[in-house]
TrEMBL record:
It catalyses: a 2'-deoxyribonucleoside 5'-diphosphate + [thioredoxin]-disulfide + H2O = a ribonucleoside 5'-diphosphate + [thioredoxin]-dithiol. It is an enzyme of class 1 (oxidoreductase). The keyword Heme does not apply. Residues 161-696 form the Ribonucleotide reductase large subunit C-terminal domain. Residues 50-140 form the Ribonucleotide reductase class II vitamin B12-dependent N-terminal domain. The gene is nrdA. Its cofactor is adenosylcob(III)alamin. It comes from Saccharothrix coeruleofusca. Catalyzes the reduction of ribonucleotides to deoxyribonucleotides. May function to provide a pool of deoxyribonucleotide precursors for DNA repair during oxygen limitation and/or for immediate growth after restoration of oxygen. This is Vitamin B12-dependent ribonucleotide reductase. Residues 883-904 have a biased composition (Basic and acidic residues). One of its GO terms (biological process) is DNA biosynthetic process. Residues 1-21, 883-907 are annotated as: Disordered. GO terms for molecular function: cobalamin binding; cobalt ion binding; nucleotide binding; ribonucleoside-diphosphate reductase activity, thioredoxin disulfide as acceptor.
């Protein structure tokens, strides 16, 4: 038997057709490697120093010098792998110091298990397999999920799975065991999800005659436990998912749980409690450690369509105890998601229609990021391929090489179950019986752009669907061949008919694919052959794995592979910051941009001019020589031209039919989105055949620095720049000898200082002096010079709001929490100083444009938006003229009207562009390791600074 090449390789009868007692192992051919030459000898290695500093005080929180990596690995990937995945105490001889040691530790464990359990025909085949895996990992072609790097080959339990689904019954023993099992999973560096619908509602009676507590009450204890356990004993918090069926009598309470907590956050914040990110009082907020999802049935969705009543059922008897209006309930779901991004939605009918093992139980829940969906008390290990590694220089996607790579990776993933440890015996039993795998990919957004496809286009969706179909077909075909070698999964015999039905559904979906380009046509052609071979071999052998694929967020491992985009996500923006080997960073245009321009037929001179324009402006609109019909190719998740919410949904719908599981992705929506739009997104998700969906509306949460008005800030900044050159002689207006002034003491990120501000007698700031650092120090001298420069500029008539627009959100250390109740978090000392000056010296109208408000003004906003009492907003607003610092924010509606549309906003650099759209991640938590604001990655969050994630990686 030989290694498959695009479904056309020669196989022994034992592998293809099953051979009972005559089974033989796999014969592995070389794909990437050369016989007689080890993969390590083909690359140039270099020594690097990894030093990571604490964001609060600049102290070193991780340091390892002299680590060894290939010269083509980025500094960011080096830092992440060294700090996250190297094992052994830092500073000891046992500490890993080379990427070779890390890869060998993992790969050799896989190969030894493969030999032990009879996966290879000969010892020579195991050696080839070892070299192939080593080459692929070394060259960032794919990566296993984080638990593999944490645990495999160490003295720790060999936990390889990142995704777990638990089960809880309507007994106190089961509920307490739920808490325990979650804790064990969090400790091992993974996340878990479960469905609470078996627990009786608060509207039902106990056998003792009392009333049941209901599932929401028990969520409090689990939430508190998750909040105290750092995942993997490291730096990231636990990730969890809680699901409740739509027919549960407590469904309305569950839907509104997090929205009510957000109301509490507002009230406590406005009462003076520290409710900002990392604040000492934020821990009083409940239910924040879990993603919540409502599991809707087809019956409910049909009732929603028809405007009918829907019955909520008792948990033990199944009788209807309450009738609700389906449309009203669905609107409450959409409204809660609009308010706080929770709950998400899962479509039970679609999920179980694609279920390969229904005779062994229904699928009731998912992992925290909603991509793994299978039986209760089960787990899934993940691995993701870097799609850009299969893009040739001429712009063609190498489908044959991709198929070979999928074979190798899925084989390794299957072997891992043979030696893996699991946190509980029920999970171990189910996983070994059904052997669930989750192969996936990253860098799809970069691939589409590099090949000249818009993310939200028929061509882009066709290529994505074709690649996903090929991946699934090859994975299941190899699973069928493995079944011929080591037997099908234990639960296959009972579920054979259902499994074959699902395979036929995948194949039928492939037959419906339309092609638009030579790339997707070639991929579909190969996928069609693979599906035919998959069904032929599977009909004889069965399959080794109950499921094969998911699309995970690929947070940390995406950075490890130097991916430009994670999972199924589009590019975040056209510019990014690249870390340099000697320290520091530089701003660059994504390398996918020139590749895309080349694919679209532009000449080198045109490409250079367009790239230069993007570097300066951060977008492609009006770029010299770029045709408007090509603008859409460069649409990103944020920026001048951002992808519409339905564009994300349509991409998910295109690839969903070719996945065993689901897709970890959050659909970003603008702050101006309405409840009705959220409702429509959730409805269309069902109509388009998705399994799960979550949305995030910009600025919908309040436990973070306010970002409203950033668009106005950029606009105001642009307006201060004259459009025509006017020659004039500025006149300096000096301050009188005696002038009013004030001094403010402040603390930013632990650094203490003083701000002295002097005013003209007729009002208006005229000078500032900043005391920061020891007298005679470089910092003190720089701040003195900076103060004089600003003061002279003010006296020559430069408006204060111009300085504020330029210096707010400026990022450098020290940064973090302040002792100012009106400015709770600052991204730098200058950010704090100019926000404080704006609050003290600018009128309300100008501060509203800049998005800067006092705590009192935010209180009035909450009262206005959420009915917090009889507040005389007009009276408060009138008082602005007399007391600027007591101004109040406009209502949400008027603010939305005043906010300029994206096409009206002009920025002078890509840095300003990123600042302008930072609001799309305003709710993202600060990284607990380095303090950088994290960004969405699928349904989770990812720190690009150090690689920490809040979920699957």
């Amino acid at each position: 038997m030989t290694e498959t090449v695009g479904g056309s390789s020669k196989k022994t009868a034992a592998a293809r057709d099953g051979a009972g007692d005559k089974r033989t192992g796999l014969v592995v051919e070389r794909v990437y490697t050369t016989e007689g030459k080890h993969p390590y000898d083909e690359v140039t290695w270099e020594r690097r120093d990894v030093v990571m500093t604490n964001w609060r005080d600049g102290s070193v929180n991780f340091e390892q010098r002299g680590v060894e990596f290939p010269d083509f690995w980025s500094v960011n990937a080096t830092n992440i792998v060294t700090s996250k995945y190297f094992r052994g105490a830092v500073g000891t001889p046992q500490r890993e110091h080379s990427l070779r040691q890390l890869i060998d530790r993992v790969v050799r464990t896989y190969v030894e298990a493969g030999v032990k359990h009879g996966y290879f025909a000969t010892e020579a085949d195991s050696v080839v397999f070892e070299h192939e895996l080593t080459w692929m990992l070394l060259h960032q072609v794919f990566s296993f999920n984080s638990p593999v790097w944490f645990n495999v080959g160490t003295s720790s339990p060999q936990q390889v799975s990142a995704c777990f689904i638990l089960s809880v019954d309507d007994t106190m023993e089961s509920i307490l065991n739920w808490y325990r099992e979650e804790g064990l999973i969090f400790k091992g560096g993974s996340g878990a999800g479960l469905n609470l619908s078996r627990i009786r509602s608060s509207k039902e009676l106990l056998s003792s005659g009392g009333t049941a507590s209901g599932p929401v009450s028990f969520m409090r204890g689990a939430d508190a436990s998750a909040g105290t356990i750092k995942s993997g004993g490291a730096t990231r918090r636990a990730a969890k998912m809680v699901v409740l069926d739509v027919d549960h009598p407590d469904i309305e309470e569950f839907i509104e749980t997090k929205a009510r907590e957000e109301d509490k956050v507002r009230a406590l914040r406005d009462a003076g409690f520290d409710m900002d990110l990392g604040g000492k009082d934020i821990v009083s907020v409940q239910y924040q450690n879990a993603n919540n999802s409502v599991r809707v049935s087809d019956e409910f969705m049909h009732a929603y369509e028809n405007g009918a009543q829907f019955g909520l059922r008792a948990r033990q008897t199944g009788e209807v105890i309450e009738q609700v209006d389906a449309r009203e309930l669905f609107r409450k779901l959409a409204k809660a998601a609009w308010e706080c991004a929770d709950p998400g939605i899962q479509y039970d009918g679609t999920i179980n229609d694609w279920h390969t093992t229904p005779e062994s139980g229904r699928i009731t829940a998912s992992n925290p990021c909603s991509e793994y969906m299978h039986l209760d008390n089960s787990s899934c290990n993940l691995a993701s391929l870097n799609l850009m590694k299969f893009l040739s220089d001429d712009g063609t996607f190498n489908a044959e090489l991709f198929a070979k790579s999928v074979e190798l990776v899925i084989t390794a993933m299957e072997i891992s179950i043979s030696f893996a440890d699991f946190p509980t015996e029920p999970i171990a039993e189910t996983t070994r019986k059904f052997r669930q795998l989750g192969i996936g990919y990253a860098n799809l957004g970069a691939l589409l752009m590099a090949t000249g496809h818009a993310y939200d286009s028929e061509g882009g969706r066709a290529l994505a669907a074709a690649i996903t179909s090929l991946m699934q077909a090859v994975a299941y075909r190899r699973s069928a061949e493995l079944a011929g070698v080591v037997g099908p999964y234990e639960g296959y015999a009972r579920n054979a008919e259902a499994h074959q039905r699902v395979i036929r559904k995948h194949s039928a979906a492939n037959d419906l694919l339309r092609t638009y380009h030579a790339n997707d046509a070639a991929v579909v052609k190969l996928a069609t052959r693979e599906w035919q071979e998959c069904q032929r071999v599977g009909a004889v052998n069965g399959w080794r794995n109950a499921q094969a694929s998911v699309l995970a967020p690929t947070g940390t491992i995406g950075l490890m592979m130097d991916c430009d985009t994670t999972g199924i996500e589009p590019d975040l923006a056209l510019v990014k910051f690249k870390k340099l080997v000697g320290g520091g960073s530089m701003q660059i245009v994504n390398q996918t941009v020139p590749r895309a321009l080349k694919a679209l037929g532009y000449q080198q001179e045109q490409i250079e001019a367009i790239v230069e324009y993007i570097s300066e402006h951060g977008h492609v609109v009006d770029a010299p020589g770029l045709r408007p019909e090509h603008y859409e190719v460069f649409d990103c998740a944020m920026g001048e031209r951002s992808i519409a919410p339905m564009g994300h949904v349509r991409m998910m719908a295109a690839v969903q039919p070719f996945l065993s599981g689901a897709i970890s992705k959050t659909v970003n929506m603008p702050e101006t989105a309405t409840v009705e739009e959220v409702e429509e997104i959730y409805y269309q998700g069902w109509k388009l055949g998705l399994k799960a969906l979550a949305i995030y509306r910009d600025n919908c949460k309040v436990g973070q620095p306010l970002s409203a008005g950033k668009g106005a800030k950029a606009s105001a900044s642009a307006e201060t720049k004259p459009e025509t050159v006017v020659e004039y002689r500025p006149v300096r207006k000096r301050l009188p000898k005696k002038r009013p002034s004030q001094t403010v003491s402040f603390t930013v990120g632990g650094a203490e200082g003083y701000l002295h501000a002097g005013s003209y007698p007729d009002d208006g700031l005229g000078e500032i002096f900043v005391k920061l650092g020891k007298q005679g120090s470089t910092l003190a001298g720089v701040m003195d010079a900076f103060s004089m420069s600003i003061s002279v500029g003010l006296q020559y008539g430069i408006p204060l709001e111009f300085y504020v627009s330029k210096f707010q959100n400026l990022r450098f250390e020290p940064a973090g929490m302040t002792d100012d109740p009106d400015v709770r978090i600052a991204t730098s000392v200058l950010d704090y100083l100019f926000r404080r000056l704006a609050l003290d010296y600018l009128p309300f109208e100008k501060r509203a444009q800049l998005g800067i408000f006092t705590a009192d003004e935010r209180t009035a906003q909450v009262a206005d938006n959420y009915g917090g009492g009889d507040v005389d907003l007009e009276g408060l607003r009138t008082s602005v003229e007399a007391t600027p610092e007591k101004a109040v924010e406009k209502s949400a509606k008027s603010a939305a009207e005043d906010k300029p549309k994206p096409q009206d906003v002009k920025v002078g650099s890509s840095t300003e562009l990123l600042e302008l759209h930072l609001g799309t991640t305003a709710d993202a938590p600060l990284c607990m390791t380095c303090g950088t604001k994290m960004r969405p990655a699928g349904s989770c969050y990812l720190c690009e600074g150090c690689g920490s994630t809040s979920g699957c990686s």
